[in-house]
Amino acid sequence: xxxxxxxxxxxxxxxxxxxxxxxxxxxxxxxxxxxxxxxxxxxxxxxxxxxxxxxxxxxxxxxxxxxxxxxxxxxxxxxxxxxxxxxxxxxxxxxxxxxxxxxxxxxxxxxxxxxxxxxxxxxxxxxxxxxxxxxxxxxxxxxxxxxxxxxxxxxxxxxxxxxxxxxxxxxxxxxxxxxxxxxxxxxxxxxxxxxxxxxxxxxxxxxxxxxxxxxxxxxxxxxxxxxxxxxxxxxxxxxxxxxxxxxxxxxxxxxxxxxxxxxxxxxxxxxxxxxxxxxxxxxxxxxxxxxxxxxxxxx
Amino acid sequence: xxxxxxxxxxxxxxxxxxxxxxxxxxxxxxxxxxxxxxxxxxxxxxxxxxxxxxxxxxxxxxxxxxxxxxxxxxxxxxxxxxxxxxxxxxxxxxxxxxxxxxxxxxxxxxxxxxxxxxxxxxxxxxxxxxxxxxxxxxxxxxxxxxxxxxxxxxxxxxxxxxxxxxxxxxxxxxxxxxxxxxxxxxxxxxxxxxxxxxxxxxxxxxxxxxxxxxxxxxxxxxxxxxxxxxxxxxxxxxxxxxxxxxxxxxxxxxxxxxxxxxxxxxxxxxxxxxxxxxxxxxxxxxxxxxxxxxxxxxx
Lengths: 299, 299
Hints:
2 copies of one chain form a homodimer. Chain A is an all-alpha fold and 299 residues long. Chain A has one domain: Farnesyl Diphosphate Synthase, CATH 1.10.600.10. The first copy, chain A, has 15 helices and 2 strands. A two-stranded antiparallel sheet of chain A has the order 1-2. Chain A is globular, with a radius of gyration of 18 Å. The first copy, chain A, starts with a helix and ends with a helix. At the A-B interface, α2, α4, α6, α7 and α8 of A face α2, α4, α6, α7 and α8 of B. Chains A, B: This is Farnesyl diphosphate synthase. Chains A, B: Its cofactor is Mg(2+). Chains A, B: Keywords: Isoprene biosynthesis, Magnesium, Metal-binding, Transferase.
């Protein structure tokens, strides 16, 4: 199915809005230390599909969240995501030279600056989220900061990366693979949805559970499709080194389920995501379209 | 002058309290991913003089801040400090093998785990500070999270490290050296004082300015003494590699001012710190003693 033109236009508008927001939330590269600030900006700006901001804005739309608060929350999540890529690409981790079609940060700026830029981006994410003087009241803002910290740390993204690291060359079971991805990429995708929604209101337990189910399904779908693309697309299309998982002997959905079953799983997860949104009716239109997009993307 | 016995006892009590607090605020190393959690605990527990927690508790005492809130704020700052040491010791940064008399985290756990443990400790710091359900109201807690993020990032600690990195082999002016340290170590020492005080109450501008002056003087004194010790003490006493600054051709107070003038500067800064505390009278007794300790320390 083709995305409807209004959705494509909404997406483009969010991406443009986010580029401006991220630009404004990052220190200028004319401010000292200039090299560090240049590396932070290089890592964040002009790159990526902004999937996490799109999820935040789409979830915010369910509850009519104000745009300024959404831009701030989405920028915070995107900075966490960007810093994790900088560190993940470093020689002691994945040792990758290409990201979003550009040299990785440590190739461009050196390892020490890449390490510091990643560290400073994590701080900046919490700073941006804490600094808002918008519609979000302090108690809700503290809750949002807590969710972001939890999703980023050892029980979220960093924990998933550690499991990933320890699993190279090992035979994982499907539940183990799922748990790894639930942390490594799922936690941040989930918090994107939650922070977007929380920009609108404090959630009822029912709303929270529905969004959690949606985010869990979409998060896993995202990873399954990532594995499919790593096995089928070329580096030029992906903007990063393709076939790397197989070369690194990393367990993937494709290596465990095969290509066709992986694709079928992605479609099933999209349907699960749609089902979770039923209570919200038409208000969740954008979240529904994003689930479609995540499953159908080519890069 | 000798520290009074009651102060020494207070210090020991805070250190014991902090060890327990940090232990409780860190995930268990029996929880998966176990290796990551073990590295985080190794980096934080059983080490260091806990200067930052001592500053937080001493500042809290000025405003009768509740202990539970202080332990939480102090633990957050100490986790930021600990993560910065883990990353700073890595081969692409200072490449140091010894810290607090033990092998550094990357020597003990490998570089990838060290990188992730540092990243996860930063998240954990914000999580610990955001999670409190103690006497600090949400608006004040947001302000504290903002201060911690600002002190940790590119306009604080990470920025100072970047300037330090860029200055190896260069001739710095004294103001440039001071600016580097004001960010690299000063920002986190200052935020320790501020967070401790904020655990007690929202500060008046006068209180804030006085604490700022105290923290600036103590922060700089701390660094001057560090340089003196690096030039005069042995590795066994320091628990880290001595003489490293000279070997790395890094600008230090000793290389710029000489030993005696550096020692005189440290004493002058201690006096400045004492003067800044005048408005608080006897309530600032512990902060005063800490300024003495920082200047007189032997390691």
